[in-house]
Amino acid sequence: MYDDPGLAARIAEHDGIDGVATLFHAWVHGRRTSYWTIEGATRRAMPVYRLCRHDAATCAPIDHPIVAGHLPGDEGYAHYGQIHDVAVPEGWDGQVGSVEEALTLADELGVPPARARSELWHCPIAALEAGVEVAPGVTVAPARRVFVGGREARCFDFSAGTPNRSVLPSGELFVRHVYVLRREDEALPLVEAARGADLDGDGELRSSNNVFGVGLEDDDYTPLWAMVPVTVPAGLPSIEASPAYTAATDMFDVAPDYTITPREGRIVDHEITSVLIDCPLQSAPGSL
């Protein structure tokens, strides 16, 4: 894959990572969390194929790369994949490098792969020189193998080490809110990188008073977020000191269907926008 200059350049141009994805800090459920922003978010996942072997009532994945049909820059590519299982028999030790081969194999074995699973695979394919910062000064390269069109690429696996996430039957992801706070008497949000100012005095421009609506421990966690700008009262304590708002419930009543209603006197204004952002939350310090 990467020995083809044209393909390598296209992946680098469209992988959503400009060199190194910076580790930023925000808040969720009253505590600090860390996250990255990967450009090019989409609502719909692309189909990906996983080889597995039946084990009792489940189909246990075998040691074989996920097979995808698209690369960054292709129509139909997404950072997200909806897993389709292809069951192989005991003793099968072949290799499948493309979606076409996966479908042919399934047909030969008599196991239709068309039944999509609800599992989300979040592994953006990236240039070999791309990096994701997992701690200050510590960067990892794309390490997960994935086959596309008979060739091997690499991706950043934000799915590993976190509980299984769900994809809707339509192939779309859940969308939750990330709240971007701005004081009513200030033009810029409470985000150090946007202001170009070190508000909390730690010598870095990573912190913000952004608030994610759900966390990794929540059943409805998703890496896909709708941006919700929130205007808060002037003088509200933020990351310069101890933030006043560090959870969605500090600002809104959140219904079971995720409808939000502003709490009286807590905010000035808000807007649920159509801007979607791929912001995976960090699962553990020093890792994805």
Task: Describe what is shown at a glance.
This protein is mainly β and 288 residues long. It is 9% helix and 32% strand.
Topology, element by element:
Elements: H1 5-14, E1 20-21, E2 24-28, E3 31-35, E4 46-55, E5 58-61, E6 66-68, E7 80-87, H2 99-109, E8 116-122, E9 131-135, E10 138-140, E11 144-148, E12 151-155, E13 176-183, H3 192-195, E14 211-212, E15 224-232, E16 252-254, E17 260-262, E18 269-270, E19 276-278
Parallel strand pairs: 1-9, 2-14, 4-7, 6-11, 13-15
Antiparallel strand pairs: 2-3, 4-5, 4-6, 7-8, 9-10, 11-12, 13-14, 15-18, 15-19, 16-17
Care to describe what's here?
With 288 residues, the protein is mainly beta. It has 2 domains: 5-19 and 44-155, no CATH class; 176-278, no CATH class. Helix content is 9%, strand content 32%. The protein has 3 helices and 19 strands. The strands form 4 sheets. Strands 2, 3, 13, 14, 15, 18 and 19 form a 7-stranded mixed beta sheet that branches. Strands 4, 5, 6, 7, 8, 11 and 12 form a 7-stranded mixed beta sheet that branches. A hairpin with a 2-residue loop joins strand 11 and strand 12. The radius of gyration is 21 Å and the shape is elongated. The model has no long low-confidence stretch (mean pLDDT 93).
Which terms would index this structure?
mainly beta, seven-stranded mixed β-sheet, 2 domains, elongated, 3 helices, 288 residues
What is the count of distinct domains? 2
Secondary structure: number of strands:
19
Q: Mean of residue pLDDT?
A: 93
The general outline is elongated
End-to-end separation in angstroms reads 24 Å
Q: Helicity, in percent? A: under 10%
* Share in β-strands: 25-35%
Structural class: mainly beta
For the CA atoms, what is the radius of gyration? Answer: 21 Å
Order of helices and strands: HEEEEEEEHEEEEEEHEEEEEE
Q: Report low-confidence residues grouped into runs of 5 or more.
A: none
Number of helices: 3
What characterizes the major β-sheet?
Answer: 7 strands, mixed
